[in-house]
Amino acid sequence: MSKLNIIPVFVPHYGCPNDCIFCNQRKITNKNYADDLIKTRLDIEEYLTFFSNKNQETQIAFYGGSFTGLSEDVMIEYLKLANFFIDKNLVNSIRLSTRPDYINDSILEILKYYNVKTIELGVQSLDDDVLYYNNRGHNSHTVFKASEKIKEYGFELGLQQMIGLYKDNYEKSLRTAKRFVEIGPKFVRIYPTLVIKDTKLEDLFLKGIYKPLTIDEAINIIKPIYIMYSLNSIDVIRIGLQPTDNINEGKDVVAGPFHAAFRQLLLQEIFKEMSSKELSLFENGEEISIIANNKNISYLVGNKGINKKYYSSEFNINKIKFIGTKEDNSKVIIKSNIEKIKIDIYNYYREYLRNLEV
Ligand code: SF4
How far is the CA of 98 from the centre of ligand 1 (A)? Predict the structure, then answer.
């Protein structure tokens, strides 16, 4: 994805009417949006002073739930505020996140009029049982309809997927990912389900009815999904919740696969498997160089050199050197004095999915 200057605006819920079992935001009510608007304006002004690259596209992003579920008046007040900055050429466009059942023609016309460019739908799953048991209040048909409309109107579409929901499993998550590919969003976010304090999911967890995924199980599910999206040119712009003051183990996260650097964990595992397959072809005791684009070197080495240690012990390699380049980021080269193997990352991905029969 091209780089953006993002100004995040967390719109309070003024009482979300929904009651998804994994969410505790519905409890926030009775806030005065006029006060929030003044604060939002000051926050945006402050953000604008931070950006060093003024030539990059700048977007105001309305996050924090279902923007188009706000009353029309409140929604328009926020959009007008964002347009105040667009009119002054300080901001280029707007992005927002919402639910699929809060999308219709009249809403999309308003969003178009007020320069919204990108709409993210919190979908979570396309399995109707999973949607039902997690009390999402919409089914998969609603998602297909909303996505089609968003694309028809010419907005950029993003979809959010959760894995490890109540009554979810590996096969259902993969089927959801396949259907996401059919919808064809520009980008996705993938969130492993966490048990958050004061939610119905917490009750189910404490009663032993819901068992959260471990980090390894989550990685195992996300791996083919990530590969599927990458092969279909769908940007995976986020994996796992961003750590905040409250989203951290021992704070609001009661249980579940929380990790502050989920993408690193996932990609170092993918790159470890990919290179291990080839490293096994080298002779014991050889000196090896692994050459790849700078962007991929940290995944090949692994956090705190975990992959490097693994290669050395598993394949009895005497010395291993990692060389970062600015070359093609779809290739990894492994070479010794006698041998040189070139890995095409996308060929590896295709073979990986073929073997899984996905
Ligand atoms: S996940 Fe979104 S729609 Fe569901 S309760 Fe939370 S804020 Fe409302």
Answer: 9
Its CATH class, for the domain covering 267-356, is: alpha beta
226: alpha, beta or left? (left if phi > 0; alpha if psi -120 to 50): alpha
DSSP sequence for 215-234? HHHHHHHHHHHHHHHHHTT-
Distance of CA 127 to the CA centre of its chain: 19
pTM: 0.93
Tokens of 315: 């394949």
Task: Name the residue with the closest Cα to ligand 1, atom 3.
Answer: 18
pLDDT in tens, 91-126: 999 999 999 999 999 999 999 999 999 999 999 999
Which option is the CATH number for 4-258: 3.40.50.150, 3.40.190.170, 3.20.20.70, 3.40.50.300?
Answer: 3.20.20.70
Q: How far is the CA of 99 from the centre of ligand 1 (A)?
A: 8
160 ligand 1 Cβ < 6 A: no
User: What is the rounded CA–CA span in Å between residue 272 and residue 239?
Assistant: 19
